[in-house]
Design brief:
alpha/beta, Rossmann fold, about 35% helix, about 25% strand, globular, disordered N terminus
Amino acid sequence: MAVSSTPAHAELVNLGQRLYDLALVKRDHEHITDPQGQPIGWLLDTRIPMLRGDVMREVGRVLATRLEARSIHQVAGFGFGAFALVGSVVATPAAEPFMGGLIRDKRKPHGRQRLVEGPLDRSRPVVFLDDILNSGKSALRGIHLLRQDGFQVAGMMCLFQFTWSAGKTRLEQEGLWVDAILDLKLRHE
């Protein structure tokens, strides 16, 4: 794949690097663990940069531009890592306003009994948003919930994609495209 040297590409790389720098948490700063409770050396907490107004606006603008290029104006997210992304896109001014949805883990048993909250239209495509694409398991869970509720999922956008994991391949096998602001690769030092 050829590397673009356009100003837009340079701005995107700069945004990705800033997101990474702001989200990176290392074990020498605080005690962090993996899902099994084992100590780990680092993690990316994207809520840190995404809950800053300046970063949220910039990410929203970038994602909205990429969505408009695909003529898609609906996004949905599953979990805390995605909720700020959905808000960033929905708040971005556009000729056709963006609509957002928040996916619940299970249908709410009372009130409106929704699985997906928000003004999404089932007759139009929706893009699944998440902060990080690693194995693809949580993304597929959210995508399957959207599909179960009658939505047409076109693809996925994320801040970071871990290229050493199979997440992108898993989603592509489901017929979805994947668009990440920054692809992260392991360094061999």
